[in-house]
Write a structure and sequence with these properties.
Blueprint (H helix, E strand, L loop, with lengths): L1 E5 L3 H12 L3 E5 L10 E3 L6 E2 L3 E3 L10 E4 L3 H4 L3 H5 L7 E3 L6 H6 L6 E6 L2 E4 L4 E6 L3 E7 L5 H6 L7 E3 L3 H22 L5 H4 L1 H17 L9 H10 L6 H7 L7 H13 L5 H16 L5
Parallel strand pairs: 1-2, 1-6, 2-5, 3-10, 6-7, 7-8, 11-12
Antiparallel strand pairs: 3-4, 8-11, 9-10
Length: 296
């Protein structure tokens, strides 16, 4: 298949690398300043490998794709609505953003087939052109609207290193990931620590447990779906990782605060529930965002 990927961040490059290995022809849409770049993936204990791909800088160059994957963060995606509406309506779109805010934007689009993905891999960019694959995990894909027979070909061609799994409950997967991100990302960013330290340090672990308890009080149906032991296991399994929010802050990028933390706070408010600790962290991190130097 001809697959266009909008964005060459860590997750976009990760998708491009593995889908290219599976035999798909990949075209990245990037800013014009990146048009001549070559991209690479660095897997565990391996030297960087060049990603076989084409690179373009105009959305019109993606109008003959079999699939377009939107791999930019929500605050960039929200600025692209007019460009997305210019695409042929028959081309399926796959959105792989963190958080929940992109769901409202997706509802406004007229495309015949729209899919949503929840990515559980660990990845980071070592530099502007190289992604490092830090942790293996599945990507869950679900249909938001329409149907696409070729999605089965996409899934069947996926590999053990980059498994794609179809799910009928994609929104539930997104909510679960947003909750996990709310537990790990804000605290790790404020404390400036790795995921593992959140459960290895008694003080951080106590704060983490308090956030978890207030969240489960607001969303009682999640007590069985997201047990405390799973939160601890995730921190332990990614013990050396720095959360995406912390990496954004350290690299002078805008943090995905509203689409992750803000969205969960809003859902709690709709139930007339409060999350005081998480709300305090949200306000602190809003000030971090204001103070950040986003030109670095």
């Amino acid at each position: 298949m001809n697959i266009g990927i909008v964005g060459a961040g860590a997750i976009g490059l990760l998708f491009g690398a593995y889908l290219s290995e599976s035999g798909h022809r990949i075209t990245f849409l990037v800013r014009e300043t990146s048009i001549d770049k070559k991209f690479y993936i660095e897997k565990t204990n391996e030297k960087p490998q060049q990603i076989t791909c084409d690179v373009v800088s105009n959305m019109a160059d993606l109008k003959k794709m079999d699939l377009i994957i939107l791999a930019v963060k929500y605050h960039h995606l929200s600025q692209m609505e007019d460009q997305l509406k210019s695409l042929p309506l028959h081309i399926p779109l796959l959105f792989i953003q963190n958080g929940l805010s992109h769901l409202a934007l997706i509802e406004q689009l007229k495309q015949e087939t729209i899919m949503i993905g929840s990515v559980l891999h660990g990845a980071t960019k070592n530099n502007n052109s190289t992604v490092q694959h830090l942790g293996l995990g599945p990507t869950y894909i679900g249909l938001f609207k329409g149907e696409w027979i070729k999605v089965h070909d996409l899934v069947d061609k996926s590999t053990e290193q980059f498994p794609l799994i179809l799910t009928p409950n994609i929104e539930q997967m997104l909510v679960k990931k947003a909750m996990l991100n709310c537990l790990i990302n804000p605290l790790s960013t404020i404390a400036r620590v790795t995921n593992g330290e959140l459960v290895e340090n008694d003080s951080y672990k106590a704060i983490l447990r308090d956030i978890y308890e207030e969240m489960m009080e607001a969303f009682e149906e999640w007590k069985d779906r997201l047990p405390w032991e799973e939160v601890v296991a995730l921190c332990e399994n990614t013990r050396l990782n720095r959360s995406s929010m912390l990496k954004d802050y350290e690299n002078g990028r805008i943090m995905e605060l509203d689409t992750i933390v803000g969205a969960i706070l809003e859902r709690a408010a709709q139930r007339k529930k409060k999350l005081p600790i998480l709300h305090a962290f949200y306000l602190l991190l809003k000030e971090f965002n204001k103070a950040g130097d986003y030109n670095r």
